[in-house]
Structure formats: structure tokens, C-alpha cells
Write a structure and sequence with these properties.
Helix content: 40-55%
Number of helices: 9
Bound molecules: 3-methylbut-3-enyl trihydrogen diphosphate, magnesium ion
CATH architecture of one domain: 3-Layer(aba) Sandwich
């Protein structure tokens, strides 16, 4: 039994790795909504609704576990190519979920951010996204990033474009463009890079998610479909992460000696 509150907060929850071994930033490809519904002979859109419920559970689980940043892939730049009725249901679902959850998120001190190109969304959704970001901008708890109309290649291209604009304006020289400079223009540049990537539903690919930011992210794949993914599955992913050795190009011996000694 912890002697005081700070000890209690520092102690890992039962079954979870030590806090130092917990990922700070978790990025998830929430996949398998369609298959979840198809397995039940239901329309794919029912799977998306169930998936939205999972988002609520996992956001709460992340706050309880002290995870700092959760980035969720909600809609890729390629998902526009799906049948129009499915895209329309998804747009409506984003709006209703946002409307229904914003108060709860704000009360839980969660900062909500969106990455991607909102301009393609219906204007009511764009307005609500802007409003939700403003409302939660000063919150200091979990940073919840929603990748919507996002693509990793788009992200790198827009960073290159913005750096080029600086060159054209005479504020940057071509020779000064390094990975560190490009990084400044990519999405999430002000946040630590993802430590742990989770993809549900069995597919082992990145599907144009955070290509730049995941250079050294640990990858974890599970067959669980997103509507079935629960906090115990999150804990299993965190436990796997805790067992990894992240070397960042160094040798195991260097890591054991303490960071490149
Ligand atoms: C992920 O589930 C949700 C989105 C891409 C919006 P899917 O709709 O891709 O589900 P599957 O892969 O068809 O099962
Ligand atoms: C990736 O899932 C995008 C999201 C989860 C939003 P997809 O279902 O679109 O990926 P692919 O098509 O199987 O690669
Ligand atoms: Mg899919």
C-alpha cells in the first residue's frame, strides 16, 4: 500500500510496466470496423459507430495510464475513394461524436488537435473542429490528436512546400535544409515522436500514416478488430513495448552502458 498520494500516483497500475517503460506517445491505426460489422452481417457503417465507442474507452484508458499523447488515424487521404454513402456516414459520425464528446473531453483536461487537411470536410465539420481545438487549447492533460484527411506523404510534401516558401522569401537558404529543419514544418513537430504504433485488425502496414514521425517508433500489430479493442489490449501493447530494446542506431552494449558512452 502506497504511503502517500504521490507514491500512489508514481506506482504503475497492477499488471502495467513501470512508468519509465510506458510509451509517452501512442499512435493507433484504428482498423477493422468494416470487418467487425460484416462478421455480424451488418452494414459497415454499424462497425464505424461501434468504433467510435472504442475511441471513448481508449481515450479514457490512456488518461488513466498517464499516456501523454494519443494520435488516432480516423480518416486517410485515400479513404475518400470509398463508396460515397460510407464517406457520408463517416463525416456525420465525426460531427456527432465531436459534438457529443467535447464537454467530456474538456472536463477531463484533454487537449484536442487535428492534423490533415480539413478544407475537404463539410463546412459545419470544419467549423466544429476549429471550435473544439480552441475550446481545449489550454488543457494540460492528454493531448488527443485526430488524423483526419491525413496522409504521411501529404505531410512531408507540405513541410517541403513551407520550407521552399521560406527559401523564396529569403529567410532560409537551400543548403540549410536538413532533417531537423524539415521536421519543424511537419505535423506534430512540437510533440515527442510516437513511441508505440498500434494497428488493429491484422494488417501489417502503415497505410500512409505518420511516415516522417515514425522513423524510430516501435510497431505492434494485433488481430483484434478496432470495435473489440479494449484497455486490456492496450495494456498488452504497452507490455510488449516495455520488452523492446530501442537502440536508435547504437549497439546493445552502448545502450547497456548508458547512451553512447
Ligand atoms: C477503419 O476501419 C476505419 C476507417 C478507415 C475510417 P475499416 O473501415 O477500414 O475496416 P475494414 O478494414 O474494412 O475492416
Ligand atoms: C487506414 O486504414 C486508415 C484508417 C484507419 C483511418 P485503411 O483500412 O484505409 O487501410 P488499407 O486500405 O487497408 O491499407
Ligand atoms: Mg481497413
Amino acid at each position: 500500500m502506497a504511503a502517500n498520494l504521490s507514491e500512489a500516483l508514481a506506482a504503475p497500475a497492477p499488471g502495467l510496466p513501470d512508468r519509465a517503460l510506458m510509451p509517452h506517445h501512442v499512435a493507433i491505426v484504428m482498423d477493422g470496423n468494416g470487418r467487425w460489422a460484416q462478421q455480424r452481417a451488418l452494414p459497415r457503417t454499424v462497425g464505424h459507430r461501434e468504433g467510435a465507442k472504442t475511441v471513448r474507452r481508449i481515450v479514457q484508458a490512456c488518461t488513466e495510464r498517464g499516456i501523454g499523447v494519443l494520435t488516432l488515424f480516423a480518416f486517410s487521404s485515400e479513404n475518400w475513394r470509398r463508396p460515397r454513402p460510407e464517406v457520408e456516414v463517416l463525416m456525420n459520425l465525426f460531427l456527432t461524436t465531436l459534438r457529443g464528446e467535447i464537454r467530456r473531453l474538456d472536463n477531463a483536461n484533454i487537449q484536442l488537435r487535428f492534423i490533415g487537411e480539413p478544407a475537404a470536410f463539410p463546412s459545419t465539420l470544419q467549423d466544429y473542429i476549429a471550435k473544439a481545438q480552441r475550446r481545449t487549447a489550454n488543457n494540460t492533460g492528454l493531448t488527443l490528436v485526430i488524423a483526419a484527411n491525413y496522409g504521411g506523404r501529404w505531410d512531408i510534401a507540405q513541410a517541403a512546400r513551407r520550407a521552399s516558401e521560406e527559401v523564396s522569401a529569403g529567410r532560409l537558404r537551400c543548403e540549410e535544409i536538413t532533417p531537423e529543419i524539415v521536421h519543424r514544418y511537419t505535423c506534430l513537430a512540437d510533440l515527442p515522436e510516437p513511441d508505440l504504433f498500434i494497428r488493429t485488425a491484422g494488417e501489417q502496414r502503415i497505410s500512409n500514416f505518420l511516415l516522417w514521425q515514425m522513423a524510430y517508433t516501435e510497431l505492434y500489430f494485433t488481430d483484434r478488430l478496432w470495435p473489440d479493442f479494449d484497455p486490456a489490449d492496450l495494456d498488452a501493447a504497452c507490455a510488449a513495448f516495455a520488452g523492446r530494446e530501442r537502440r536508435f542506431g547504437l549497439t546493445s552494449e552502448q545502450i547497456a552502458r548508458g547512451r553512447g558512452a
